[in-house]
Amino acid sequence: MSLHKYHINRIKEEAEIYAPDPRQDNRVWEFVEKYYPKYYYCNEIMRNDDLCKIVNGELDGDAEKMFTQEFGENLELATAAFDQCCKYVYERAIVGYQREQRG
């Protein structure tokens, strides 16, 4: 399992979070599905799904359109956008988990 290091500084304290690469570990996405607020209705999740398809070379209608229009078929830009999107999604899922733990 490969790990990526993310910094979260949304609260006054700074924390380091090590999360597995979602392209290599499906358990991460199970966590996101469970704790991301309104997971099934969120545009950011749909964007992340399209970016993941682009990075993995599995282009379909929406992902191919995004790759062409937004990134000019530049895989490096799409990969950077995917990494940034994952950071955001992980952060929101972690905050959702923390809120659930507080009750």
Q: Summarize this, please?
A:
This protein has 103 residues and is mostly helical.
Can you offer a commentary on this structure?
The protein is mainly alpha-helical and 103 residues long. It has one domain. Helix content is 60%, strand content 12%. The chain has helices at residues 26-35, 43-55, 61-71, 75-102; strands at residues 3-8, 15-20. Strands 1-2 form a two-stranded antiparallel sheet. Strand 1 (3-8) and strand 2 form a beta hairpin. It is elongated. Residues 6-16 have low confidence and may be disordered.
Which tags fit this structure?
single chain; 4 helices; elongated; two-stranded antiparallel ribbon; 2 strands; about 100 residues; mainly alpha
In angstroms, what separates the terminal alpha carbons?
A: 31 Å
Provide a count of the helices.
4
Order of helices and strands: EEHHHH
Side-by-side strand order of the widest sheet: 1-2
| Total beta strands | 2
Specify the structural class.
mainly alpha
Principal-axis shape? elongated
Largest sheet: 2 strands, antiparallel
What fraction of the residues are assigned to beta strands by DSSP? 5-15%
Overall tally of structural domains: 1
Helix content: 55-70%
Poorly predicted runs are 6-16
Radius of gyration: 14 Å
- Rounded mean pLDDT is 81
